[in-house]
């Protein structure tokens, strides 16, 4: 049973990473950036509607990041990947990719958006250049389009980064300790 679960996890992980963002095979660099910028704008609009206090944190902070991610949890392992953009106060944008892996109990697949608000310039620059973030995660989600429900919200990676997560679609019940790696997308920067 354990080998079947691990094999399934690897197959699903490959599928998740294959769909991690707009591909240069199908879109020009400008089109890829526009797709990511549109996703970020829609996500921020939703965040400000659902969490009005986030706007104040963004105004006071050094910048923000918005990421679209897919996550798969199979029994004791969690895997995922995604793409996004980090913007500083001056409007400079850094397009990035992300990958995650973790351990914990759960089962499910979900598509979610994550907004990171950087409280200071040092943390933002360190994140863009080094990109590591660690954290625990617990949620319940059953959502398809506008139907269904979710339990997610705000947390802190550190005192210098506030994180908001919002499920787009999926079915998941999980409690995991996850390591996430964010890195610059060399094709778009």
Structure description:
This protein has four helices and six strands. By secondary structure, the chain is of the alpha+beta class. Strands 1, 2, 3, 4, 5 and 6 form a six-stranded antiparallel β-sheet that branches. Strand 1 and strand 2 form a beta hairpin. The N and C termini lie far apart (43 Å). The relative contact order is 0.19. The N terminus is likely disordered.
Q: What does the radius of gyration come to?
A: 16 Å
> What's the pLDDT, averaged over the residues?
76
Helix content: 25-40%
Question: Number of helical segments?
Answer: 4
Overall outline: globular
Helix/sheet category: alpha+beta
How are helices and strands ordered from N to C? HHHEEHEEEE
Show unreliable segments. 1-19, 137-156
Strand content: over 45%
Distance between the termini: 43 Å
**Biggest sheet, in brief?**
6 strands, antiparallel
The total of beta strands comes to: 6
